[in-house]
C-alpha cells in the first residue's frame, strides 16, 4: 500500500526546517519528519539524502515511521508520548488541505493500529515512564518548580506537576503558548526577561536559553536538564543531565536488548505483509488525489 511513500528525517528540527507544499511536515522536540509521494515529490530510490535530511522510500519509510511512533527510536525507549503527538498532528482537521489527505489519514490509522500491537505485545512493562513521570520522580520533594520552555516537552511534564499541587511557573518567549498553557493549567507564566530564578527546582525543557540563564540558575536546589546537547556540569551536585536521567531508569539494558531483538523480527514480518498487499494494488497510495 505504501510503495510510493517518501519520508524525510532529520534529528535537527530547529536549524533545518523544510518548507514545501508537496510535503507534510511533523516536528517533535527530537526530530523533524516530512511525508511525500514520489509522484508529486520525485526523489529516486538511489537518493538517500535531501537538503540534510535522510530519505526513506516505500516500506522502508513505513517501517521507520512505525519505529518512531512506537517509541523505539526515542531516547527514552518505548515512551508513549510520541504516539499521542503523532495522532494529534494528523487529526483530520489538520490535514484537510493536503494534496494527499486521504492517504495521510489511512497512513495514520494503520501506523496507530500497528503501534498498538507493538506496545501490547512487546512493550508491556517497558516504557511506562514518560518524560513527565520521570521529571515527577526527581521532583517529588520539591514544592516550587520553574519550567523553562513552552514546547511539547514542557506540555507533557506539566500535568504530572500541577496534579501534585506544586507551585509551578512556566518561562518562555512564545506569548501564545504561555497563554494557552496558563488557561489549561493552574500555573504562573513569565517571559524570560521578566523572571529571575531563586533557589527553586529548575526543569530545562527548551533547547533555547538566553545567554545569562546558565549562570542565573546555578544556585537552584535542583536542575533537571532534558537538553540532548547539554554539557555535564560534574561539579554541580544538583545538576542532572539527560544522560543521567536515561541511565537512572528502571528498565535494564538486558531487558531492552531482548525486546529489540524480538521486535526486529516482528517489524520485518509486518513490512513483508504490507509489501505482499501491494501486489494487489496498482498505485501504492490509494486514491492519491481524491
TrEMBL record:
SUPFAM superfamilies attached to this UniProt entry: Glutamyl tRNA-reductase catalytic, N-terminal domain, NAD(P)-binding Rossmann-fold domains
Domain Glutamyl-tRNA reductase N-terminal, chain residue ranges per copy: 45-121
GO process annotations (BP): tetrapyrrole biosynthetic process
Every Pyrroline-5-carboxylate reductase catalytic N-terminal domain range: 145-205
MF terms in GO: glutamyl-tRNA reductase activity; NADP binding
Name of the molecule in the record: Glutamyl-tRNA reductase
Amino acid at each position: 500500500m505504501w510503495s510510493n511513500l517518501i519520508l524525510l528525517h532529520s534529528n535537527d528540527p530547529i536549524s533545518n526546517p523544510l518548507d514545501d507544499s508537496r510535503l507534510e511536515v511533523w516536528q517533535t522536540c527530537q526530530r523533524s519528519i516530512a511525508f511525500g509521494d514520489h509522484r508529486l515529490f520525485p526523489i529516486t530510490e538511489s537518493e538517500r539524502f535531501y537538503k540534510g535530511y535522510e530519505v526513506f522510500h516505500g516500506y522502508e519509510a513505513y517501517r521507520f515511521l512505525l519505529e518512531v511512533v512506537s517509541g523505539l527510536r526515542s531516547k527514552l525507549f518505548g515512551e508513549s508520548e510520541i504516539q499521542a503527538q503523532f495522532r494529534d498532528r494528523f487529526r483530520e482537521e489538520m490535514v484537510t488541505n493536503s494534496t494527499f489527505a486521504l492517504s495521510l489519514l489511512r497512513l495514520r490509522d494503520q501506523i496507530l493500529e500497528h503501534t498498538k500491537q507493538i506496545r501490547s505485545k512487546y512493550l508491556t512493562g517497558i516504557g511506562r515512564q514518560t518524560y513527565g513521570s520521570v521529571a515527577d520522580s526527581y521532583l517529588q520533594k520539591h514544592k516550587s518548580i520553574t519550567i523553562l520552555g513552552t514546547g511539547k516537552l514542557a506540555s507533557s511534564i506539566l500535568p504530572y506537576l500541577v496534579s501534585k499541587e506544586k507551585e509551578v511557573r512556566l518561562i518562555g518567549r512564545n506569548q501564545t503558548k504561555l497563554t494557552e498553557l496558563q488557561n489549561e493549567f493552574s500555573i504562573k507564566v513569565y517571559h524570560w526577561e521578566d523572571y529571575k530564578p531563586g533557589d527553586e527546582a529548575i526543569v530545562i525543557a527548551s533547547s533555547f536559553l538566553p545567554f545569562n540563564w546558565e549562570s542565573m540558575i546555578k544556585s537552584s536546589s535542583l536542575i533537571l536538564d532534558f537538553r540532548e546537547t547539554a554539557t555535564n556540569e560534574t561539579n554541580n551536585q544538583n545538576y542532572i543531565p539527560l544522560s543521567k536521567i536515561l541511565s537512572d531508569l528502571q528498565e535494564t539494558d538486558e531487558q531492552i536488548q531482548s525486546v529489540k531483538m524480538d521486535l526486529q523480527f516482528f517489524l520485518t514480518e509486518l513490512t513483508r505483509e504490507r509489501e505482499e498487499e501491494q501486489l494487489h494494488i496498482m498505485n501504492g497510495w490509494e486514491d492519491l488525489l481524491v
